[in-house]
Amino acid sequence: MTSLVCGNRSVLAWHMQLQAAQAGHTLEVVDPRVFLATIPTDDDIDVICDDAENDDANSGTSSLPAGSPIGSPVAVDNATAANGAADENATWNDTAETVSGAVVAAGNSSCPSFHFDSLIYLADARLWTPQDPSHTPTDTELAQEIRATTEAVVNVIETLPVMPATVVLASSISAGNTTEVGQALAEAAVLIEQATSGAATRYMELQFPQVFGEGFPAMKGALIAQLCDAISAGKHPRVSQDRPMTIMYAQEAARILTNEMPDLAMSMAESSKEPTGQLAITLNEISNMSVDGHIPDRIPSSRYGLVFQLYSTLRTAQLRVAQLRNGENGRHILPKLPTSTVIEELPRVTSRTHFLQPGSTVEIQGTLNGLHRLAVVAGTAELTLPNFPGIVFVAAADKLPEEDQPSTAQAIAQDPADDYPVAEPQGMPFFDVPHGYTVRCECKKNGSAQGGNPVAIVEWVSEP
User: Fold this and answer.
1) In sequence order, what are the residues at sequence separation of 6 or more whose Cβ sits closer than 8 angstroms to the Cβ of residue 127?
2) What CATH number did the domain enclosing 387 receive?
3) Is 379 left (phi over 0), alpha (psi -120 to 50) or beta?
């Protein structure tokens, strides 16, 4: 199954790619305004086919490889053409390089087919990453973006050489309300349905509740993202007006959208209704899990599913704040999991162990459910995340490397009442991996500041 996803700025597209990789589906995520210029029009295809016929008559070469659909753009390579056909092929190559960017230059072995099983438009601009991260867009600006993008998506639908069998509009339950964004989403539904009405295409509008998850910007209406950003900055936010709010985890929304045949009813079936005040309380309570590893006792195991979703969302906010504070040169000493912390409190925990020799690395991707915890039980390792460049987490099961040792003056300044030397804290350094993110664990070679002892890393993965 191949799907065209219109909305490369939506963080939901990243979650869909994670789900698609698990399901074996192919997604092409695009900015519809940029993608539109690459689609060959009927006139473009006619020109290509006319040139190809001249090639066939004069050089005896075939313009369409076996199995190519009629009208598919094809590039001819001068090096493989028949002798004496170079002059005619020169004209073909000039055409191939200029047709709306749709036909690849001669010598490139692949051409885009522009045939998709489904087209999915991620329309809710409140889930988009702002073009200017320092500016929070207003409702008016968000509505304008939705209208401009919807116009481009309509043009894409009308220009594609083959209409997708399914067209899905991923919208919001706020579509049609009195806000500017709600009105823009309602207009999008009308325009997309009109664009598909004359074709044998299944059109669906899936209206999702408030979607939360890793990487979403803290824009207006994104309550959980706002709470996570505030907590990561060291604040203790609360909600003044407690009211029920229907929420859905991004991984669930992505799973629905990447299904071969999305189910209209599923856009609400996987949601839950939570009091906004309780969400703030829970997030504040679990904010320290990345430091002491302890799940608050008052949270029952039946709530672990939502807790781990909220915690994974909070972890990405914490990492983002750490990156902003430290720039490109941040080194963090991972806290140690206290021996008093009961690992077995997690539901149905599975585990595996990685042994790293000096100079070797292993990449671990966070599971899409539950709590995914790494603990270094021997040696010293450096942990990095490609999504947060410049941050290095030092996991030292033994003595800290020399470059990370605080000076005596620094230690006294932190707590002048302590006697020195300070005893090393007991336990195992640990790191909780956000869902879908990759962690690169490295064991440094001999002679480096990190030492040269092997490293043993244990993964704990809960299965709620």
Assistant:
1) 10, 11, 12, 211, 216
2) 2.60.120.10
3) left
Question: What is the reported pTM?
Answer: 0.79
* Within-domain flag for 93: yes
Rg (Cα) of the chain, in Å, rounded?
A: 27
Same domain? 142 vs 208: yes
Q: Please check whether residue 317 lies inside any domain of the structure.
A: no
| 22: amino acid identity, one letter | Q
Q: Are residues 194 and 52 in the same domain?
A: no
Pair 144, 156 in one domain: yes
Token output for 123: 């329309």
Does residue 31 form part of some domain?
A: yes
Spatial separation of the C-alpha atoms in residues 327 and 415, rounded to whole Å: 27
Spell out the per-residue pLDDT of the chain, length 464, in tens.
Answer: 899 999 999 999 999 999 999 888 899 999 999 999 999 876 665 555 445 444 444 444 433 333 333 333 333 333 333 333 333 333 333 333 333 333 333 333 344 578 899 999 999 999 999 988 888 899 999 999 999 999 999 999 999 999 999 999 999 999 999 999 999 999 999 999 999 998 889 999 999 999 999 999 888 788 999 999 999 999 999 988 889 999 999 999 999 999 887 777 777 778 899 999 999 999 999 999 999 898 888 888 888 999 999 999 999 999 999 888 765 567 888 998 876 665 656 778 888 999 999 989 999 999 988 999 999 988 899 999 999 988 999 998 877 776 776 655 555 555 555 554 444 546 889 999 999 999 999 997 754 444 468 999 999 998 76
